[in-house]
Fold each of these.
Amino acid sequence: MPQKIGEEESVNSLSLKAWFLSLFTLNVLDILTTIPNCEINPVALYIWDKIGFFLAAWVKISLVVLFGVLCLAIKKVATPDEWHFARRLLGAILTILVAFYILVVAINLSIHVFVRI
């Protein structure tokens, strides 16, 4: 049975919410599983040196929340045709970010395993 435009939008909006919550959860897991002594990312090391680990973690979480607010703002101001394109674009960005954070959390967890051996 074909979906109406309003039904399709609500189903896909729920999907964006799920992707965003996944991104937020993985971001927090990344922070919780990071071992600062084993970090090799020079950008992270530089930022931690300048503002500290905990402030950098708050900034990182805040950026994800800001991205969510941006998604909501786009949905509010976009026309239905614009939202169709924006939803697909935001979904693609969220998919890439979630895949990246899955990789990062997996690497962090594997470092935990090897450090304890």
Amino acid sequence: MKNCLIKPTLVLVCLALLALPLFAQRGKGGSGGGGGGGSTGCALVSPPTVSSSTAIAGGESVGIFSKVTNCSSGKARYTVTISAVSSCGEETILASSVISFSAGQSFLISKAYSVPANTCKGMGAVYVSAYSGSTMLATGSVALNVQ
């Protein structure tokens, strides 16, 4: 009689212990952050501005400024990247950071960029983008004329 009670009890305890990680995963997710979760979040990126005049020479530096806002109603973690694309189509990632936002919170983003002397001359662009995991939520760009 003891075996009839002990074996089913052990099976139930083992199943409960195995199911605990699955229940813990359900609490994760929400908006933002990397990994699973059904919701991707909400971000706004203001169009970036640059500190140069209309044209910049290779070898000179320029300042890049933008604002990134969490437009979701909860906390979120977004990856914010700043990149430059030359007129030849070569992309350079200038900065990439994971930033934790509260609901409605904004951050001002700035980066100094030394344009390489051998950069292709012509109209390029600077991009500021916000990602939740691998999903791009928002991006802003500004033209950068290299002469």
Amino acid sequence: MKRILAIFIICFLFIFSLYAQYDTSQFTGLWVLQSVKFKHPVDLNKDGYRSSDAFWEFDECRKDQQLELFPDYNAKAYYGTSRSGCVNHQVKQYKWNLKEELVKEVKYEMGKRVVDERRPTVLKLNDASGNDAKVFVVIGVDENLLTLKGLVKTGTNTTEEAILIYRKRKK
């Protein structure tokens, strides 16, 4: 009886590990930022108008963002590197991985706190020091579009939840 139970558990764990694996080839490539939509309107350019569309708020250099995910799980993020005149251009190196993680979202409905728990696919970008981890919930991916949900910096010490849409660039 113990052997049957042990074999059943081993088979279950094996099947579960196959189910949990992701097709990372869909994620590899150079992704160019196309759109950023904030959950709540913000005024990043200090013109007195708040907008949920970050491309109305970003300057041309801040719109210029690319994310390159390599098959060896290395990644590079390019900020302001493909536009001339951007003085704060940067290239950051990361290690990336995909996994299913428990995500909790808290909201208030009719005065009551509601916690939504789910296990979506999460894209993690970790820098070499481990200090600058970026975590994004994968909303969708296909051969041309990558849609992520995560926190975007809106100031020196502030972030806001946003939907980021990237388009794959052919090399």
